[in-house]
Amino acid sequence: MTGCKLSAAASQRAELGGLLLLALLLLGAGLGLRQPLNVDEERFLGVSLEMLQDGSWFIPHRAGEIYSDKPPLFMWAVALFIRLTGSPKLALFLPALLAGLVATACLHDLGSRLWNRRAGLCAALLFLATYQTFSILRAGQIDGFLCLWIVLALYGLLRHLLLGPAWSWYYLACMAMGLGVISKGVGFLPVLMLLPYSYAVRRGWSGVVPMPGQMRAWLLGLPVALAAIGVWLLPLLVGVALHGDADSLAYVREILLRQTAERYANAWAHREPFWYFFVEVIPKYWLPPVLALPWLVPAWRRRLARRDGRLLVLLGWVALVLLFFCLSSGKRKLYIYPALPALALAAAPLLPWLLHRWIAGRPRRRRLLLGLSLFWFVAWFARGFIEPARTGANPHEGIMRQAAELTGGAELVLTEWREGHWLFARQPIVHFGFRAPATVEQAAAWLRGHPQAFALVPARDLARCFRPERAHRLGGTSRATWLLVGAEADNGACRSDPPARVYRFAWQTAGAALAAGR
């Protein structure tokens, strides 16, 4: 009997090892070849590099200006991986890769504990097979890193609520939620799982663990979560209280109020209708599991009718996450990704039955399904290498390299700029703020007072203030074609008031472009 147990444990470890290898191959394919290409990746890598340069860990900066859109934990993680690897373009993608590996292991273990080994295997494979997993966990964005804390919180809560009592796991979940909050404000979402759990306990559903008379132990989770949040928030508030200026106070108000409650209730960007996720996101980004919903939904309904508390807790939480984001006026396709691991876990025990129903006695259908599954995984692995070769280098890198060569490294004024201009700058840059970037009129006025400087101007605005024949074309990005001008190109037609703020910034190394290219 002992030998059988050891053999089963060894087999389960081998199965987990195979799943982790699959996750590493799928999510890590092309790692080291990828460059930061979209504005989010450029921004977070730049903020992380600037943290390493100026040591401002609690109040992040973007080209010398305070960056107040997101808490700093993700940027801390990227900075740490830069220190460990020496390669910024590799470090940017490692937090999401780590999250994918942890999520795979947690789902395999939870499925095995809640149902059986086949369910654990199916939960991990469903998670890895879903399109949104590839689109988020292979990107250098916060939402991939957020997945790490969401999954750890789900794991701890489910070990406690469905397999407990296990208070140590509950407190681990609370800590993970706190760290999730200082990664992105919605890191608290797993706590919503207590709502369907409480209903199941009151109604006497099976599969949940009642824990009466433990109110003090439950409430202790709040200070644990607050302590995790305090890793960033406490030093920030103390520092601002003792030495803060008006900008620091404005940062605290912005990050704690405007970027959280106000952004949720009255978003100023990405405004979409209530049904956006159900029409535009789930049908595409939750493929292929969404194809099984016509069979899964009736099966879930039958199990819920038998009062299966495990499914109620999982599906109830998925529904609450979807409702939470549907009620917000601002929506992006990646917002609902935290619900996906729980959905995969809820579908996992039914997948073997469903596959048997589809392919039993139909060898041709069995071969077709196996072939499609292999093609799906191989295609995503191949895409990890094809995509970096197809997209090539970030166009901002070439533009900023040419600008430095043509100006001899002189000061460069940025107009209508984006994060790529700052990330790949190889010379001192001047700007007047990111949210209200310099206009071509302001650039012309600046060059009159600083004739040794140059300006980077989009082609569509050039002729208003500068002579086109005196400009040097540098190249194009998705937003504009960019030209370099000096004071001698001024046509004298533009006047502008002095800017309210002037920010100067320079990378201390040869530039983030060189560092990002290692």
UniProtKB/TrEMBL annotation:
InterPro entries: LipidA_mod_glycosyltrf_83, RgtA/B/C-like
Enzyme Commission identifier(s): 2.4.-.-
Cited Pfam families: PMT_2
Protein name: ArnT family glycosyltransferase
Keyword Acetylation applies: no
Superkingdom field: Bacteria
Cellular localization per UniProt: Cell membrane
Mode of membrane association: Multi-pass membrane protein
Occurrences of domain Glycosyltransferase RgtA/B/C/D-like (ranges): 69-205
Keywords: Cell membrane, Glycosyltransferase, Membrane, Transferase, Transmembrane, Transmembrane helix
First-listed, main subcellular location of the protein, grouped into a coarse class: membrane
Originating organism: Azorhizophilus paspali
Single GO term (MF): glycosyltransferase activity
Chain ranges passing through the membrane: 90-107, 119-137, 143-162, 169-197, 217-242, 311-330, 336-356, 368-386
